[in-house]
Write a structure and sequence with these properties.
The chain is mainly alpha-helical. Helix content is 71%, strand content 6%. It folds into 2 domains: 1-184, Orthogonal Bundle (Preprotein translocase SecY subunit), CATH 1.10.3370; 196-390, Preprotein translocase SecY subunit (Orthogonal Bundle). It has 22 helices and 5 strands. The protein is globular and about 85 Å long.
Length: 423
Amino acid sequence: MLSTILSAFTVADIRKKLAFTAAMLALYRLGNHVPVPGINVDAVASIQDQFGGSNILGFLNLFSGGGLSRIALFALGIMPYITASIILQLLTVVVPALEKLSKEGEVGQQRITQYTRYLTVGLAFAQSIGYVFLFRSFQASAGQPVIENFSAPRVFLIVISLTAGCVLIMWMGELITQRGIGNGISLMIFASIVSGLPNGVQAWWTSPDPVFKVMMPFIALAVIAAIVFVQEGQRRIPIQYAKRVIGRRMTQGGQTYLPLRVNMAGVIPVIFAASIMAFPPTIGQLLNNSAGNDFANFFSPNGWAYIVGETIFIILFTYFYTAVTFNPVDQADNLKKYGGFIPGVRPGRPTAEFLDRILARLTFPGALYLAAVAAMPTILINQTSANFFFGGTSLLIVVGVALDTMKQLEAQLMMRNYEGFLK
């Protein structure tokens, strides 16, 4: 990994992409420290305990890189965009017009992306209104109003600022994908989680529990090793290509393989599940009464209801996202079109059924792995204050994004350096 990073800096084009990505991430972190106009900064400083890791506010604050606890310009983070992507992908399956668009190649994907942007703006606007009234409810614990001169124009200013911040984050993420090293949205979530790592290390080091102090590094290393081991695991399906005549030339047949990863969905199901499970406790917090607080506590990220719900959603989204990204029927048709076949399996429909069987067997352990990595560390350390800095969900996203980014760097280096093929 270190050699790949050092080699990337030797290529001018990749060096520019890395610098552009670093600049975008730096601007993103800067926006998490710029307060929204109309907010009482002193009152915000006195309610930091409301955003502890034991409630849903701490969980949302983690994914916003601390911007929510500061009521900053980027307090919404990238979660509205992720939620909009979930809704559009679900609608693609049930709405024929969207399904037709998804099959129209790049033009159709651009239209769906445009719809996702519009939905992101709407969700960010609605979520901003909810946060305004949530911040107003902190007045009792702060001892002074969090929002000065609470009026319709002041509320509109704060809502527009938060919505504009979310749209700006979405634009920056797309710029990183297009002009940077790629994976823009995932890299911004990565930066948000890593920014809280120093606080997590401090909470672990100052923990009064000696057992937790000793076991925490081993738990973190074990989870990281499991993530790397399963993320890199794959089932290689042998593919044989027959000799073909193209024009006046006969092409030589060859043998290769089709790699099917154990976890083809990556970290997307975990992010999707976290977005869905953030809704119930957020609604409970917005109600700001005893019933709402009980409802929010029931779905607290440390509670069993949250863990069970997240596990179910992770398994469902793993199957869903794998089905979206890999279509056995299309793969079988492509193999048949180019003269490829799986030894012992007839081309066409039998090949599609064979690939579908293999994919179902691979997806089930992959889904269980994602659910276990996301839930088990939280179960083991749910009584500590550092659980969300070292939790399974955070480590899974950080390690998964790091592995995907390194693969993209290696692919770009491979395109510009053919030394490996000449040896």
